[in-house]
Design a protein that fits this description.
By secondary structure, the protein is an alpha+beta fold. It is 53% helix and 16% strand.
Length: 420
C-alpha cells in the first residue's frame, strides 16, 4: 500500500507515459471509445424504454381490444359474409372461460369509427364530439386523469343509467367560458341533457383517443342510442404474467364457439394486442442494450490489449533501467506492481473520461428530444452498470498488465546491463 502512495512510483509511471505520448494517447482513446460507445448506446436504449413506459403508463400493458367483423367461411348452416355482433353477455362468458383475463369491459361509441358524432350544445355554443359508452371498470385498465373537483363514471351511474358525462379538455374550452366551472353544469348531447361530473385530461390510453371525447355510462348510451345488448368492442386486460398472444387466441376461440363461427375463420373477429406490441418494443430495447454491451466490451478489450502492447514496448525500452533497479535490490513484486499499476492507471483514466463524455452526449440527446412527439425520454445508464463497467475495465487492465509485468520480472540484471 505504501508503494501505491510513493511519490517516486508515480514519477516513474508518468515518466514512462511521457516517453510514449502519442502511442499512449492513441491507445487510451481506444479504451475511452469503448466505454463511451457502451454508455451512449445503453443510455439511448434506456431512453427508448423510458419513453414507451411513459406512453403506456396510463393503460394496462397486457391490454387487448377485440371486435366483431364478418365471417369468411361457411359453418353450421351459415353462409360466408355473415355480419357478427358482440354482446354484453359475451364479456361474462369470456371472463369465465379465459382465466387469464383480469378485467373486461364492453364499449360502445358514436362518431369514433366513422358515422356522425354526437352534437354537443351549451347555450349558443355547439360542436360535434365522439361519445363513448363506458363501464366504470374501464378505469382499472386505462387510467383516467380527471381534473380536481371532478370524478369519473362510477357504479351507481351505470346501475341507474344516470345522465352524467365526463368531457374532454377541448370540449370544455369550446362549450364553456374561460373562468366557468363545468362541474355540475349541463350540456345537451343529441337533444338530451347531461350533467358534467368531470373533465378528463387527454391520455393516449386507446389508439383513437382525442381531447374532445365525451364519456357516459354504458347503460345510458344503450338507452340513448338504442343499442340493445350489442357492444362495439371489448377492452380486455390480462394478468401481468399471462401470455398475451395465447390469451388473444383463447378469446377468439371462445367468441367463435359462442357465435357459431368456423374454428379456422381468422376474419370473423379482429384484435389489437397492445400487450404483444409492448413486449416486442421492450424486446427491441433490451436487444439494443445487449448489443451496446457486446460492442462496448469488444472495443474496451481491444483498447486494453493495446495498452498491454504499449507497456510491452515500454518494458523493452526500459530493460537497462529495470535491470539496474533489480541489481540495486528491487524485488520482483515491486517491479511487477509498477507495471500493473501503470496499466490500471491508464485504463481507469480512459474509463472515467469515456463515462464523462458519454454522460455529456446523453444530456445533449435528452435536451434535443424534450417535447418531441416520439416515445423517448430521460436517456440514462443506471449507476450500478456504470460502476460495473469501470470495475471490468480495472480488472482487464490488471490482467493485461500481468503480461508486460512478467516480462519485466524475467529480466536478469546481468543481461540488462549488457543491453546497449
Amino acid at each position: 500500500m505504501r508503494f501505491l502512495f510513493d511519490k517516486n512510483t508515480w514519477q516513474e509511471i508518468f515518466g514512462s507515459i511521457g516517453k510514449n505520448k502519442t502511442r499512449t494517447i492513441i491507445t487510451v482513446i481506444g479504451v475511452l471509445w469503448g466505454i463511451f460507445i457502451y454508455i451512449v448506446l445503453a443510455g439511448a436504449s434506456k431512453g427508448l424504454d423510458n419513453g414507451f413506459e411513459r406512453n403506456f403508463e396510463t393503460v394496462a400493458k397486457n391490454s387487448i381490444f377485440t371486435w366483431s367483423q364478418s365471417t369468411s367461411m361457411p359453418y353450421a348452416g351459415y353462409k360466408t359474409g355473415r355480419r357478427l355482433n358482440l354482446k354484453v353477455q359475451d364479456a361474462v362468458t369470456l371472463q369465465n372461460r379465459v382465466p387469464e383475463i383480469q378485467y373486461i369491459a364492453p364499449v360502445n361509441t358514436k362518431g369514433v369509427f366513422g358515422g356522425q358524432a354526437a352534437l354537443g350544445v351549451r347555450g349558443l355554443k355547439s360542436n360535434s364530439y365522439p361519445v363513448y359508452g363506458y363501464f366504470p371498470v374501464i378505469a382499472k385498465m386505462a387510467t383516467q386523469r380527471i381534473y380536481d373537483n371532478g370524478r369519473f363514471i362510477n357504479d351507481e351511474d351505470e346501475e341507474q343509467a344516470r345522465k352524467v358525462c365526463v368531457i374532454g379538455e377541448r370540449t370544455e374550452q369550446e362549450l364553456f367560458d374561460k373562468d366557468e366551472d363545468p362541474i355540475g353544469a349541463y350540456v345537451r348531447l343529441d337533444g338530451i341533457y347531461f350533467q358534467v361530473v368531470g373533465v378528463a385530461k387527454l391520455t393516449q390510453n386507446t389508439p383513437f383517443a382525442t381531447d374532445g371525447d365525451i364519456f357516459i355510462p354504458f347503460s345510458t348510451f344503450k338507452k340513448l342510442y338504442n343499442t340493445g345488448d350489442n357492444a362495439q368492442y371489448f377492452t380486455i386486460a390480462a394478468y401481468d404474467d399471462a401470455d398475451v398472444v395465447q390469451v388473444e387466441k383463447d378469446i377468439k376461440s371462445v367468441l367463435k364457439s359462442i357465435h357459431n363461427v368456423h374454428p379456422d375463420d381468422e376474419r370473423a373477429f379482429g384484435a389489437f394486442n397492445l400487450g404483444e406490441i409492448f413486449s416486442k418494443i421492450m424486446g427491441f430495447a433490451n436487444g439494443l442494450t445487449f448489443v451496446s454491451l457486446i460492442v462496448g466490451l469488444a472495443t474496451i478489450l481491444a483498447g486494453v490489449i493495446g495498452i498491454g502492447n504499449i507497456l510491452l514496448i515500454s518494458v523493452k525500452e526500459r530493460t537497462k533501467e529495470l535491470g539496474i533497479r533489480r541489481a540495486l535490490g528491487a524485488t520482483p513484486r515491486e517491479v511487477r506492481s509498477l507495471i500493473i499499476l501503470e496499466s490500471v492507471f491508464l485504463t481507469t483514466i480512459a474509463g472515467i473520461i469515456g463515462i464523462i463524455m458519454g454522460a455529456g452526449v446523453l444530456s445533449l440527446i435528452n435536451s434535443w428530444t424534450e417535447g418531441i412527439d416520439f416515445p423517448y425520454t430521460n436517456p440514462t445508464v443506471p449507476i450500478p452498470l456504470v460502476i460495473g463497467a469501470l470495475l471490468v475495465m480495472v480488472i482487464l487492465g490488471t490482467l493485461i498488465g500481468l503480461i508486460p509485468a512478467q516480462r519485466a520480472v524475467s529480466i536478469k540484471p546481468i543481461d540488462a546491463l549488457r543491453e546497449e
